[in-house]
């Protein structure tokens, strides 16, 4: 235990280098190429999260660049709904790393899943208005990032955390696009690219929704795809240039799920899901979940946010968020 009265005597005589300053390290999670650990900073006296590359990627120049870029992008977006970065460094054993604030609370993905499973405590803790407020906070952070030339590109409930005191955090800026980025950070060509419906007046085939109210199995994207299939915009799928309106599309999908507790575009597999996003029309949320008394305004907001053509969407996240405020006012 660290007490204010004896902080001076508890400081080490020699300041350790790299990851040596972090004790009690243990794994929290791992992804395709990264590792998250919890560790205690003996210099400052706090628990942090440490992100490193998995051993097989630590010497890979491309992966090192991407981790460093993720750390710098996150560090340069100081906002109440983003994670503070504490340190970026190089360790002689674990390679490049960065540390950030340890987030506690509940993943918004799990919140929606529990509501789908009729978990009474979660239903009471997260009524519709509260779920909309969480998304509203996330969109504020996205608007802040867009003003600084950063597009998230992977907005989804799984990257949103709600803290023990109601604080909201948008995580994982590893897929972010920064204006002026180098070719090293671009997606590779997608051989399965789908055509985007060319006209708003062109009739759409309806999405064939599954029977289950909210199937939570993850659709893993192909290696060359940046983003998560069920939340990607048509232009992401087609490997076209993306801007903040792509994040608007993903936020619109999150809105549908937060309201209807159902997924608007999920198909039987990734290819079918991409077809749904690019050329088919989902059932409006009020019709998909009539028992939830979803206002028609929500249908209109979702439809505009997820328009196939970027010119037909909300042109800024701020504009989308202003519509969310009108929706929240109805609850």
TrEMBL record:
Q: Which Pfam families match?
A: Pkinase
Residue stretches in coiled coil = none
Question: Which region ranges are annotated with the description Disordered?
Answer: 185-214
Q: Which UniProt keywords apply?
A: ATP-binding, Kinase, Nucleotide-binding, Transferase
Q: Which InterPro entries match?
A: Kinase-like_dom_sf, Prot_kinase_dom, Ser/Thr_kinase_AS
The record, for SMART domains, names: S_TKc
Task: Specify the Protein kinase domain's residue ranges.
Answer: 22-331
What this protein is called in its record is Serine/threonine-protein kinase PknD
């Amino acid at each position: 235990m660290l007490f204010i009265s004896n902080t001076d005597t508890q400081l080490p005589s020699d300041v350790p280098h790299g990851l040596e300053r972090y004790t009690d390290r243990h794994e929290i999670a791992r992804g395709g190429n990264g590792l998250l650990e919890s560790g205690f900073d003996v210099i400052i006296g706090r628990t942090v999260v440490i992100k490193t590359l998995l051993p097989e990627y630590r010497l890979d120049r491309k992966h090192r660049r991407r981790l460093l870029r993720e750390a710098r992008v996150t560090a340069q977006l100081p906002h109440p709904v983003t994670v503070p970065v504490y340190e970026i460094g190089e360790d002689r054993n674990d390679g490049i790393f960065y540390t950030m604030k340890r987030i506690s609370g509940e993943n918004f993905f799990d919140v929606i899943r529990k509501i789908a499973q009729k978990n009474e405590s979660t239903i009471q803790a997260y009524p519709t208005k509260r779920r909309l407020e969480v998304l509203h906070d996330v969109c504020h952070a996205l608007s802040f990032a867009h003003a600084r030339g950063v597009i998230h590109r992977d907005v989804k409930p799984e990257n949103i955390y709600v803290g023990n005191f109601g604080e909201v955090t948008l995580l994982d800026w590893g897929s972010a696009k920064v204006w002026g980025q180098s070719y090293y950070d671009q997606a590779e060509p997608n051989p399965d690219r789908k055509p985007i419906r060319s006209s708003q007046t062109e009739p759409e085939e309806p999405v064939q929704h599954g029977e289950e109210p909210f199937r939570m199995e993850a659709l893993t994207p192909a290696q060359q795809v940046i983003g998560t299939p069920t939340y990607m915009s048509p232009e992401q799928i087609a490997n076209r240039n993306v801007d903040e309106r792509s994040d608007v599309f993903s936020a619109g999908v999150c809105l549908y799920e937060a309201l209807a507790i159902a997924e608007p575009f999920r198909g039987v597999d990734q290819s079918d899901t991409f077809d749904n996003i690019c050329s088919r029309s989902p059932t409006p949320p009020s019709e998909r979940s009539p028992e939830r008394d979803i206002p028609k305004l929500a249908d209109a907001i979702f439809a505009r946010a997820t328009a196939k053509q970027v010119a037909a969407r909300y042109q800024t996240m701020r504009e989308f968020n202003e519509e969310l405020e009108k929706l929240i006012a109805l609850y």
